[in-house]
Each structure stands twice: as structure tokens, then as C-alpha cells.
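Incident log, structure service

09:12 report received: a user says their structure output differs between two submissions of the same chain.
09:20 pulled the input from the user's history:
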Amino acid sequence: MAGQGDGTLLAEGARFSETIALLAKSTFIPKGVYRFRSHVEANAQQADCLAKGMGRLAAERV
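09:34 re-ran on a clean worker, output below:
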């Protein structure tokens, strides 16, 4: 059985952890605690942050 004792699972776990860390940096939502009156407000803030973040990425690529 692959993975037991040869370090395969450890390497997979490290890659997974690295991927999750990169995803956390790419959400475009500033760190902090947010309180919303409704899901509609929360979704609007998420969409606004996503649009601004995508705009920044597009500007960096030009």
C-alpha cells in the first residue's frame, strides 16, 4: 500500500496545506470581523471585494 512509511502521505499533506494557504490569500476579502444585517449584505460585500480584487489582478497583468 503506497503512502505508509514512504513519505507519500506527508508530501501530499504538505501540498494540500500549501494550496489552502494560497487560497486564503486569494479571497480578496480583508481580514477582520464583519457583522451584517442579512445574507444579502454579506453577499454584496463579498461580490464587491471579489470584483475589486479581480480588477487589481487584471491591472497587474497589463
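09:41 both user submissions now match this output. Likely a transient worker issue. Closing.
09:42 reviewer note: The mean pLDDT is 84. DSSP finds two helices and no strands in the chain.
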